[in-house]
Design goal:
There is one protein chain. 41% of the residues lie in helices and 15% in strands. The chain is built from 34 helices and 29 strands. The longest helix is centred in the C-terminal third of the chain and has 22 residues.
């Protein structure tokens, strides 16, 4: 940061006007005009700037923070300030209307020769804004973004205004700057005194990698990175990532790196390249009589060539060689250029450090003959003549003569397979068809079959590959595909290929702690048993937030699905679970997940216990008159517990002649049967089938009882049924189900309540989760273009009331509208067409709010319960007489002050009072 004297000198050198200097001084001495905040798609923060000596706000880790890194490490930047004072710009809207808008740029930057405001945005956001406000966001002749009205405002001070797009971010440089952040802050004087060995090694071996430096004794990784941060040794931070130590080349200086690359890239001009040798291999493109032909198949004596719009042509290889030698067939330089370049790069990658050192030595000896071939002539030494011939041949083949000087001594020798091709093909056939299949034959059996086939084919015993070779061939094949074909996808999951990089801005596992975190949701391979009852609770599910670099656990999360598991596994004396929530919140989805979990965890003993049904469910329905019929409900429960007739016949003794299975195994219920007999039959069915839980979905329909029946009759009958059969019942419904909470103390004592609330926009956490759900929804829409639901999240929330089920049905209907119109994506118009009306939303919201208030009353306040029980009063003898009232008014506590938002300040760093 400049001192006042340095600032005055800068202003004089720039010949600033008085109003321009006054504007800069106002920006330099005032606090940020606003505090930045994070939302669902950005994470804000504060960067401790060494250049500014204070913290600088950034609103995004993917746009503004990279720009701060660029400013912090740029030698041209003198000062920069976040959130400078706002100013007004004027421009025309897309419809031609005059607009005046107050804007707050992200930064004000002062460089050696200029000053101005900078606004940072993503490339996608700028493209959308350009369509919405074409007069404010535009591209210039160099295809860079600009804002003409903002530049017009800055012009009055002779300043500049820039739009900095995320497309200009060099993520390799950003990763390196983040990695070196701690080394920039360390004391480098001690390291520079004792680490001459590193600088000597780099000077002796230009282009040596960091991994090779670490192989030397006494070389410390921290010292290497500290020297890089101090610019004592040079690494091109724009192209090499420091964490990939084996690929990151180190030089003494930038000049040496440029010279080294110039020597390696000895590319010859087109005039110097002789007609290249044509490799007869599939994919090679040639010209014959003005027609472009592609080699598609090469045999022993013949090859096939194809031309666009023509049939394939067959040539003898000897005839083709004559045509090539006569010049009638020439290589297609344009189409083969990428192939030649790839081959050249591959040869260079295969070279070891010793190969490159030897190549540099040969190049230095050949350089006089390469610079002046006419006057110097041909070298007398045989080695020089051989190297020169290899250099010229490499120029012909690849255009890079230096590649001919690389000996690749470590790769010399015969590395071809010794087995004949037909035996290799037969081996692969047996492995893929006989070994890698669901039959899961062992290796000995497959090898025996292979030997038998070889013997029948007339192959001698000496030529048949050994069992050791057979095993080696199996191990060469990818383990994931091998296990998947033999044991299935689940068994092969642990061997699945790991994706090292998700995208350019996502490094491998992070470069330092808290850089990247992974979320993993998995079922543990352990069984839990209750220490009190001894009952098996099943396998627990674990959701972890893990730091990718240190592999440390950062957070644990348990959802409603995991909450229900221990309740179902160990319910104690409670026999009824009430699962309540608003409509469309996902109650039925939760039931399906629980059913799947119970069935999967019960598969091991079902083969021994054929009578058992792990879980059963049915839906409580209303009759045509809109009332609940308990007799019809009992019939539906019996049908839910009956298995298909083709699997089980005459298996349950219902204890009544009115319920039985016919000869075909179908369940028959006589129309004249009494309700008491149906209840008895249901008791026998539940006792015989023994499900872990019996779900009754839409259970709020139980409240629509007919006249003459009490409201308590149906729930009391279900409670009695659960107690007699010892079967857990799950009642799933809306908040209306909470009416049963007050029907009796016995029902309340034996009930468990699970609440599935909607996403409430009053809470920041719920807003963020809701926006992430919308983002996942738009990614799953099967259209040509991904829709943009996230920008309309408030509208989607208002018409779905924070209920995922309503949002799912709504988006499905909107997708149908888009498909009917043959639209490329789902737009806001389609959503508006199939949205719930405002009246419908208000009606649903009214019921939800009343239900939430009712559930809050059930939960209650612990202090009020203590007060009602007399626990907040000093105990007295029950024989003591007193005239004072038993209960006193407890003075309410003063509410705590809510945590406010801190003022937008730049906190000083590097001092005693630094934050």
């Amino acid at each position: 940061m400049m001192t006042q004297e340095e600032f005055s000198r800068w202003c004089i050198n720039r010949s600033l006007k008085a109003e321009a200097r006054q504007e800069i001084e106002r920006i330099r001495y005032c606090a940020p005009s606003r505090s930045v905040c994070g939302r669902c798609r950005n994470v804000s923060g504060r960067y401790p700037s060494r250049k500014m000596g204070a913290t600088i706000q950034f609103e995004s880790h993917k746009v503004e923070l990279p720009f701060i890194y660029q400013l912090e490490h740029s030698e041209d930047v003198l000062e920069y300030y976040d959130q400078p004072p706002s100013f007004k710009i004027q421009y025309l809207s897309a419809s031609g209307r005059n607009l005046g808008v107050m804007i707050t740029p992200d930064f004000f930057v002062i460089t050696l020769d200029s000053a101005g405001w900078v606004e940072c945005k993503t490339e996608t956001e700028l493209e959308k804004l350009a369509q919405k406000s074409p007069h404010r966001y535009q591209r210039d002749i160099n295809n860079n973004w600009q804002s003409p009205p903002s530049k017009e405002y800055a012009k009055q001070f002779d300043f500049d205004f820039q739009l900095w797009s995320s497309a200009r971010i060099n993520w390799t440089l950003q990763r390196n700057l983040e990695f070196l952040e701690d080394y920039y802050n360390s004391d480098l004087s001690l390291i520079l005194e004792r680490d001459n060995i590193i600088t000597s090694l780099v000077e002796a071996h230009p282009g040596i990698s960091i991994a090779e430096l670490l192989d030397y004794k006494g070389v410390n990784a921290d010292n290497i990175y500290s020297l890089i941060a101090a610019s004592e040794i040079y690494v091109n931070l724009n192209t090499h990532t420091l964490v990939e130590a084996d690929k990151c080349q180190v030089f003494k200086s930038r000049v040496i790196e440029n010279s080294f690359n110039a020597i390696i890239c000895t590319e010859s001009s087109d005039k110097m390249i002789a007609p290249p040798i044509i490799d007869l291999m599939p994919g090679t493109s040639v010209f014959y009589d003005g027609v472009c032909l592609n080699i598609i198949l090469v045999g022993q004596d013949y090859l096939l060539l194809s031309a666009k719009g023509h049939e394939t042509t067959e040539f003898k290889i000897t005839e083709l060689s004559n045509l090539i030698n006569s010049g009638k067939i020439q290589i297609n330089r344009v189409l083969n250029q990428s192939q030649i370049y790839a081959q050249a790069i591959e040869i260079f990658k295969q070279a070891s450090t010793n190969d490159l050192i030897e190549a540099n030595r040969r190049f230095s000896l050949l350089k006089p003959y390469l610079d002046e071939p006419v006057t110097t002539g041909i070298p007398k030494e045989r080695s020089l003549r051989r190297w020169l011939r290899n250099y010229q041949q490499a120029q012909q083949n690849y255009g890079y003569g230096y590649l001919g000087l690389i000996s690749l001594s470590e790769r010399k020798g015969n590395r071809n397979r010794k087995l004949p091709k037909h035996l290799i093909d037969l081996l692969e056939k047996f492995i893929s068809e006989e070994y890698e299949n669901k039959k899961q034959k062992n290796k000995q059996a497959v090898y025996a079959s292979f030997v038998h086939t070889c013997s029948q084919s007339g192959i001698s015993d000496e030529q048949i590959p050994s069992y050791k070779t057979f095993i080696a061939e199996i191990k060469k094949r990818p383990k994931y595909s091998r296990v998947e074909k033999r044991s299935g996808t689940r068994a092969a999951y642990e061997f699945e290929e790991f994706y090292w990089e998700l995208e350019l801005s996502t490094p491998r596992h992070g470069d330092f702690p808290f850089h990247i975190a992974h979320i993993d949701h998995t079922e543990l391979d352990i069984e839990l048993r209750c220490s009190k009852t001894g009952k098996v609770l099943g396998r627990p599910w674990l959701t972890l937030l893990v730091d990718a670099f240190t592999r440390r656990i950062l957070a644990i999360y348990i959802s409603a699905f995991e909450t229900l598991k221990p309740i179902i596994s160990n319910c104690g004396e409670s026999r009824i679970i009430f699962i309540v929530g608003p409509t469309g919140v996902g109650k039925t989805k939760l039931r399906l997940l629980i059913e799947k979990w119970i069935i999967e965890s019960s598969l091991s003993f079902l083969q021994f216990d054929r009578d058992c049904i792990p879980v059963a469910s049915m839906e409580a329905r209303l009759s045509s008159g809109g009332l609940f019929n308990f007799k019809d409900h009992l019939k539906r429960c019996l049908y839910a517990l009956a298995e298909p007739p083709e699997l089980i016949k005459n298996k349950i003794n219902y204890g009544t002649s009115g319920v039985y299975h016919n000869l075909d195994g179908e369940l028959i219920i006589k129309p004249t049967i009494l309700e008491t007999e149906l209840g008895w039959a249901l008791e026998q069915a539940l006792s015989h089938r023994r499900p872990k839980i019996f779900f009754i979905d839409e259970a709020h329909h139980l409240l629509a009882v007919a006249s003459g029946r009490k409201l308590t009759d149906v729930p009391e009958a279900i409670k009695s049924l659960a107690n007699i059969t010892q079967i857990l019942h799950g009642l799933i419904g809306t908040y209306d189900l909470l009416t049963l909470h007050d029907v009796g103390d016995q029902l309340s004592r034996r009930s468990i309540y699970v609440h599935l609330p909607r996403y409430n926009a009053e809470f920041i956490e719920d807003r963020e989760i809701w926006q992430s759900i919308i983002w996942n929804f738009q990614r799953q829409i099967p259209t040509d273009e991904q829709p943009d639901f996230l920008s309309h999240w408030e509208y989607l929330y208002s018409r779905s009331l924070g209920c995922v089920g309503i949002l799912k049905n709504w988006s499905r209907n909107a997708l149908g509208e888009a498909l009917n119109e043959n639209a490329s994506t789902v737009t806001l118009k389609h959503l508006e067409k199939r949205a719930l009306s405002v009246g419908q939303c208000r009606n649903i919201l009214k019921h939800i709010q009343s239900g939430e208030a009712r559930y809050a009353e059930i939960e209650g306040k612990i202090e009020e319960l203590y007060q009602d029980l007399g626990l907040r009063l000093p105990p007295v003898s029950k024989f003591q007489q007193h005239s004072e009232p038993k209960y006193q008014d407890v003075e309410p506590k003063k509410p705590k002050k809510s945590v406010g938002i801190r003022k937008p300040l730049r906190d000083p760093i590097g001092t005693e009072n630094a934050v």
